[in-house]
Write a structure and sequence with these properties.
14 strands, alpha/beta, 383 residues, two-stranded antiparallel sheet
Length: 383
């Protein structure tokens, strides 16, 4: 560990939160690498979709092998070939992405020809999808040690959507043993990928309901103070679109940002209210009510504090609405380098050290491209 890790650990648990976003998830690999090199290791990693895969790769490996496992995954899902033939350098992003849609990714997913023939064809609940993820199942089984996930010190949670009831479910290694099916369920984005059945229930990609699993950290019981690195792959901020092509890109960014800003704002208000309750309770004499009643009322308050460092991945040049299937070696490299560089810059700024209002229980620091765009106390905490 490092002095920086010890500094953060003194403030409580260290949590790493990963959004879903397909190929955009290479940014998260860079984020973790920067934290790892700084000697900062999370107590809890939580993710949805590709974020669940990255989180499981981290939790399911010894500390000194985590970067290598991430390297292995991202190098093996990268594609520079079509039907076994190398793609020439002149092929652009749209052409490469169309080829991915047509032929899949050898280490990730492969087309189901029957699914493309007739959308009304009954394929079965576990097979109604355009692609098979058998290659991904094999790859994750090779790279993730689930014995370590279930017995190690690092906690892992992955989010999935229950198909028949629209419930958001977080499978948590603290509560139950996790296996490759739980990770696959978190990334089972329909209609591309098939639902995964766990304990008799069908699950789809958690991003359908909530692509930003930081909510599970806020709602965790018992509440704990800590530092939360929340990595956002989709851009909540962007210019007005003035073409259909730009509209499709912006629409996808908004959809998968999952109202994260509003959720954080409400959580800030809630945590502030809990601090207010705690302060008021200190003024109430122990004889003002029965001990049981007073304990119950005081239980609504708390003194925990969460510092949320929200890392916003920037847009790359010439990206469009298909950016999440850009598994080209160049796209993966650029996003990973950006995540690494921006996290190093964020750590150097150490926003959690800033002075804050005593009643604030949740403090947001928003950083885009290594630049602080929203500092502590900048979000309204009006009750």
């Amino acid at each position: 560990m490092s002095k920086l890790h010890d500094e953060l650990a003194e403030r409580g648990q260290i949590v790493l939160v990963f959004q879903g976003g397909g190929a955009l998830g290479a940014y998260q690999a860079g984020v973790y690498q920067a934290l790892h090199e700084a000697g900062v290791e999370p107590d809890w990693v939580i993710g949805t979709s590709i974020g669940a895969i990255n989180a499981a790769l981290i939790a399911g490996a010894p500390k000194d092998e985590r970067i290598a496992r991430l390297d292995a995954f991202w190098s093996r899902v990268a594609t520079s070939k079509f039907m076994g033939l190398p793609l020439p350098d002149w092929t652009g992003l749209p052409i490469r992405n169309m080829m991915t849609i047509a032929s899949g990714l050898p280490a990730f997913f492969s087309p189901r020809p029957l699914a493309f023939t007739n959308p009304f064809l009954p394929l079965g609940a576990n097979a109604s999808a355009y692609y098979s993820v058998s290659p991904l199942r094999e790859l994750l089984g090779e790279l993730i040690d689930f014995d370590r996930v279930n017995t190690g010190a690092m906690r892992l949670s992955v989010g999935a959507a229950k198909v028949q009831s629209a419930e958001m479910v977080y499978f948590d290694s603290r509560a139950e043993p996790l296996a490759v099916d739980h990770v696959l369920a978190s990334g089972a984005l329909p209609p591309a990928f098939p639902a995964v059945r766990i304990d008799g229930e069908l699950y789809w990609d958690g991003g359908i309901l909530s692509n930003t699993p930081v909510e599970a950290v806020f709602d965790d019981e018992p509440r704990r103070s800590g530092t939360v690195f929340a990595v956002h792959l989709w851009n909540p901020h962007g210019p007005e679109p003035d073409s259909i092509w730009q509209v499709m890109n912006r629409q996808k960014d908004l959809q998968y940002s999952s109202r994260a800003a509003q959720n954080i704002k409400r959580q800030r208000q809630l945590h502030r209210l809990r601090h207010v309750v705690t302060e008021i309770a200190k003024l109430v004499p122990d004889t003002a009510a029965s001990a049981e009643r007073l304990a119950e009322l005081r239980g609504y308050g708390c003194e925990t504090r969460m510092n949320v460092i929200r890392l916003l991945a920037p847009s790359l040049d010439n990206e469009d609405h298909s950016k999440d299937i850009d598994f080209s070696p160049t796209g993966i490299r650029l996003r990973r380098e950006a995540g690494y560089r921006h996290t190093r810059e964020a750590l150097a700024q150490a926003p959690w050290r800033k002075e804050i209002e005593p009643l604030d229980g949740l403090v947001l620091h928003e950083i885009r491209g290594g630049e602080v765009i929203r500092a502590a106390g900048a979000v309204s905490t009006t009750l």
